[in-house]
Amino acid sequence: MTNNEIKSVEKIKGQYTEHEVTNVEKLKELDKKVKRGPRVFSYIFGSLSSLVLGTGMCLAMGVIGSGTPLMIAGIAIGAVGIGLVSVTYPIYKKMINASKKKHANEIISLCDEILNNK
């Protein structure tokens, strides 16, 4: 048997045997958990805000409908979209900081445990 075949067999065997979750794996999972919620929110909120902005631009430029009332409505809707897009990042930062603060003790204790076991 070649080394490649042995590695393949060991890799397949590893998929079917249970392994102990290490502190490093726990730390990585916790870090992902801290960042996941704010990221998902900012992607969705930013995308929807961009759609509002785009709709306002289309109305203002006459791509959707025509006439002065729609243009004025488009400018107003576009201004709301600009405002929403502008606050997406500050909201994300507040959410990520709150999430970090919530899990800070657990993450720091895991880091200390990992670094002390070196």
Explain briefly what this protein structure is.
The protein has 118 residues and is an all-alpha fold. The chain contains 3 helices and no strands. α2 runs antiparallel to α3 (68-116).
Short descriptors:
single chain; 118 residues; mainly alpha; elongated
Q: How are the SSEs ordered, and which strands pair?
A:
Blueprint: H1 3-16, H2 23-61, H3 68-116
Helix pairs in contact: 2-3
Q: Would you give an account of this structure?
A:
The model has no long low-confidence stretch (mean pLDDT 91). With 118 residues, the chain is an all-alpha fold. It has three helices and no strands. Helix 2 runs antiparallel to helix 3 (68-116). It has helices spanning 3-16, 23-61, 68-116. The relative contact order is 0.13.
Please report the total strand number as a whole number.
Answer: 0
What is the number of helical segments per DSSP (H or I, 4+ residues)? 3
Compressed to H and E, one letter per element, the order equals HHH
Number of domains: 1
